[in-house]
Structures are given as structure tokens and as C-alpha cells.
Amino acid sequence: MTKLQKILVAYDGSPHSKEALHWAVYLSRHSGAAVTAVKVFEPFLTESRWKEVGVLPDSFAPFEAMQNKDRQLMQAVKEFGHTHGVEITTEVLNGKAAETLLDYAQKHAIDMIITGNRGHGTIKHLLVGSVTRHLVSLAHVPVMVVKNCPVVNFTGGSLIMATLRSILVAYDGSPHSKKSLAWALELARPDNAQITVLKVREPFEMSMFYSIPESGSMAAAAKRMAELKEKEVAEAVMMNEAKALGDKAGINVILLILDGNATEVLIEYSQKHGFDLIIAGARGHGIFDRLPLGTVAHNLVNVSPVPVLVVKI
């Protein structure tokens, strides 16, 4: 069973990174996971390059002031965690943001990265922040992309953790979707959140079965119907396996199969029914194709107003 033990938060003090920090605090308070918040300072020249390019050290005084400001920022993060019962380790590191965060995650055996997202867009016009895009594309661990934080409320200046009520899992029976379900069960357990496992039949999946055979022969039509029946049986088995995993974990899992474009169906359904989190898997192996443009996970990260957790295999 998947276990959440170490969380890394990409933090820069912006509103969306604060949302990410709130999620980390929520998850830590419910799972006991350790939280590390990392601020990456990106100088255009490292100190080792000063002499090479003939720049005087005095010219970098403003950058030292910025680094000091970052340290103060992260001290405030520590105090925020202490106030709300979570010890947060902080780091201020130099380098390119995405590369530095990924390197830190690998070296420190991080289980999940949480990042905010400035990006927004529509299905036709996708836009996502470059750091978030690289984290999701290249990370070997699940990455949660947060645009809002529905599980957190503020009452009288105090941070109140509401219940994580419902999780939507994009599911097709593949290894990465099974891993997504495992993460959903882990996150649902503390508050006994309800999980909906949603299989979306894309139009191209069904058209091949319902189209009239070119030959028009009864034999070809019968073969198509037999293939459709086999597919329906396989889908039923796949979904029942997901239900069984939920029952074994003591978590209520609802099964649902809908037709349409996967991204559009997942977003519309999540908003209509008030889900707190969407979890989607991604295959991904190579440095350029870990999260190809146009995949369901990529589209969800760009477009969904609901937080999205992308799980890799």
C-alpha cells in the first residue's frame, strides 16, 4: 500500500504557493508525513562565474539582500507550521527552480511534491507555469498541482482543516491508474473520504464497434458485437477490481463509466459534484515524453480549477 511519509512544497510566498503549503499542512496533520518547504533562488550568475565574466562582487549586493529576504520568508513558513501543529523544515537553495526541486526530491526520498500553479486556460488554449510544467513532466513521484485549497478554512485567524470529502480518480485499469487509486485510498483513509472511480469511454473507443462493417455482412456485424460484449465484460471486471480494493481498505468506492472526451468529462463531473481532488495517472518514461502535451493528465493540470494529483509509474 502506498504510504505518504515525506512531502516537498515548492514555495515562493505567492498566493498559489501558500495554497500548496496549506495542502501540505493538511496532509501532514492527517498522515503524520514530514513537510519540507523549499524556496529556490535563481541568480543569473553564480559566485563562481563572477571573476570569469569580470563582474565586481559589489554588483551582487542586491542579490544578497534578496536571499536574506528569502530566509525571512522561510522563517515565517516555520512559524506558520508551528502555529498549526506541524514542524516544517525549510531550505533556501540556489539554481534553476525545477531542476533544483527535482534533485532535492530524489536525494531526500520525497514521496510527493506539492506546487501551486499560476497557469490557466481552456481545452483549446492551454497555459501552465514553466516550473509547474517541468515538475509534473519530469518528477518520478506524484505531483499535486494546486490552484485553490477547498479543504482549508480560516476562522478567527486560525487555520481549520476541513474534511477531504471526495476524490475523483481517472481510471482505465492500466498500471498507472491502479497506482492512482492506491494513492486515493491512502489520502481518503484519515477522513474516510468518498472515492469515485471514473472510466471515460472516448468516442474513438466506441465508434469502431458501432460502425457498420464495410462489407455489410452478417458475419462481420456479429464479430463486432462479440468484440463489444467482450469489452463490456472486461470493463466490468476492471471496475469491480477497483471496488474490491476500496472494500479491502474500508473506503467507499463509487464506480462510474461515462462517454466523451476524457478531460472534459473529468472536469465537468468534478465541478458539478464538488470534488476536492482529482487524481490521474501518467505513463511517462523518457525525459521528453514523461508527460506528453495533450495527455489527460497534462490537460487536467492546465485547465482544472480543482487540485490535481498526477501519479507516475
Tell me the domain tally. Answer: 1
Radius of gyration over C-alpha positions, nearest whole angstrom: 23 Å
What is the beta-strand fraction?
Answer: 15-25%
CATH architecture: 3-Layer(aba) Sandwich
Structural class: alpha/beta
**Shape assignment:** elongated
Low-confidence stretches: 120-128, 285-291
Distance between the termini: 14 Å
Count all strands and give the number: 12
List keywords for this structure.
alpha/beta; Rossmann fold; 45% helix; 313 residues; ten-stranded mixed beta sheet; two-stranded antiparallel sheet
Can you offer a commentary on this structure?
This protein has 313 residues and is an alpha/beta fold. It has one domain (6-312): Rossmann fold (3-Layer(aba) Sandwich). It has ten helices and twelve strands. The chain has helices at 15-31, 47-53, 61-83, 97-107, 130-138, 175-188, 203-210, 218-249, 262-272, 296-303; strands at residues 6-10, 34-41, 88-94, 112-116, 143-146, 152-155, 158-161, 166-170, 194-201, 253-259, 277-282, 308-312. The strands form two sheets. A ten-stranded mixed sheet has the order 3-2-1-4-5-12-11-8-9-10, with helices on both faces. It has a two-stranded antiparallel sheet with strand order 6-7. The chain starts with 5 loop residues before the first strand and ends with a strand.
